[in-house]
Amino acid sequence: MHRELTLQEPAASTSKVRKFIPSCCTNFSLSHRLSPKLDRIKRELENLEKRKTDLGLLKIDEKPKHTSRRNETSLPDGSSVIGRQVEKEKLLNKLLGDDGSSKENFSIVPIVGMGGVGKTTLARLLYNHTKVQSHFEPKIWVCVSDDFDVFKISDIILQSMTKESKEYKDLDQLQMALTEKSKDKRFLLVLDDVWHEDDDDWEKLVLPFRSCAPGSRIIMTTRKDELLKKLRIGHLDSLKSLSHEDALSLLALHALGVENFNSHTTLKPHGEGIVKKCAGLPLALKAIGRLLGTRTNVEDWEDVLNSEIWNLENSDKIVPALRLSYHDLSADLKQLFAYCSLFPKDYLFDKEELVLLWMAEGFLSPSNATKSPERLGHDYFEILLSRSFFQHAPNDESLFIMHDLMNDLAMLVAGELFLRFDNHMKIGTEDLAKYRHMSFSRETYVGLNPPT
């Protein structure tokens, strides 16, 4: 068309072009036609601005900021640690025993688990244990978080060893000094909240420790086990939620200032209900306990147990640490995880079936042509599994389940794209138009079984 029109006179060209424009589009001005669309886009952008933290949106060249992690410290928090006796003894043996399997003078002692399960608390307990205090010299604690800067971490380690603040021009000078200071010393290093997965950066970080004394240890707390697998660390025991009794004690400690409910028997049933809803997760139990704060009226406990705090709009009060794990996901993984908000709580799902559902929705479009959508889906599933978004079903290793709080998190980030109907009973018909995906329980909403 362009070539043909350019052969015509200017006036004729204009006339011919007009013939291709539908008359309905020339009956009103461009600004009049675009105004509603621009208003809608503006409203959507304003909404995204308000929700940018929940969505994990960043400015260009801006890194995620997990500022709350910077407040972690090696110092004891002054409160009793409930449970974890078995885990503590096992890790103490790894710290103080002879690790003949390590080819290096130092070895890694990992503490792996989902956000809020108590990894840092356990590491702090070990770090300040009397046997550990006398066994290692020096002892260093570094909160790593998302910013795995080899120079910065090395500088913190060196300053902790020397108790001096000295500036170095480059990493080589810094690590030469660190090598000298760590030589022939049996040290304990805690790297808290490690997210980084690049084993090359890890090799650079531990390079100065080749000449340390045998028996040195590095405790690493992390939600992600990819790096640990790359470092060929053997069997990884994930830190589990607290037992029912320990969880009940933790709730009593933070809500009532006592170790159990023996003196508050009328509150115990409500406490057990809260423990069940929190699924034994220490972070959630502490948050609820502090919310109750020495209230001994049964009505107050009933209000908390039955209140809106367990609903979607208030889930951020009980899963703040879990949201950090979500923000660390890529955009593709965030979409796949949000899709799982369609699953009811305690729903057992099959890996193969979920991957096929993702494929059917068009979520798996590999940029790498050498990898099929199904293979990509399996890889994504394994990443979500390794980061505790999914767990093996307790009684069937072939099936999977989402932790209740992970399910809450999925509902929280699903926004207005995914609707699980059991949580929206009062929704109006006109509001359904904004949702793109919906699920419901057949047992609840289907009166008769369909013909087979």
Quick rundown:
With 452 residues, the protein is an alpha/beta fold.
What would the keywords be for this entry?
about 450 residues; alpha/beta; Rossmann fold; 4-stranded parallel β-sheet; 21 helices
Could you characterize what this model shows?
This protein has four domains: 46 residues, no CATH class; 163 residues, 3-Layer(aba) Sandwich (Rossmann fold); 67 residues, no CATH class; 126 residues, Orthogonal Bundle (Arc Repressor Mutant, subunit A), CATH 1.10.10. Helix content is 45%, strand content 10%. The protein contains 21 helices and nine strands. A four-stranded parallel β-sheet has the order 1-4-3-2. A three-stranded antiparallel β-sheet has the order 5-7-6. β6 and β7 form a beta hairpin. α8 packs parallel to α9, α12 packs across α13 and α17 crosses α20.
Layout: helices, strands, pairs:
Blueprint lengths: L1 H5 L3 H10 L10 H21 L1 H4 L29 H12 L9 E7 L6 H9 L2 H6 L3 E7 L4 H13 L8 H12 L5 E7 L4 H8 L9 E7 L3 H5 L13 H13 L11 H11 L3 H11 L5 H9 L13 H8 L3 H9 L9 E2 H10 L12 H14 L4 E3 L2 E6 L2 H11 L3 E3 L16 E3 L2 H4 L7
Parallel strand pairs: 1-4, 2-3, 3-4, 8-9
Antiparallel strand pairs: 5-7, 6-7
Helix pairs in contact: 8-9, 8-10, 12-13, 12-14, 13-15, 17-20, 18-19
